[in-house]
Amino acid sequence: MLQPKRQKFRKMQKGRMKGISGRGHQLSNGMFGLKSLETRFITARQIEAARIAATRFMKREGQLWIKIFPDKPITKKPLEVRMGKGKGAPEYFVARVLPGRIMFEVAGVPMDIAKEALRLAAQKLPVKTKFIVARDYTAKD
Question: What is this structure's pTM?
Answer without folding.
Answer: 0.85
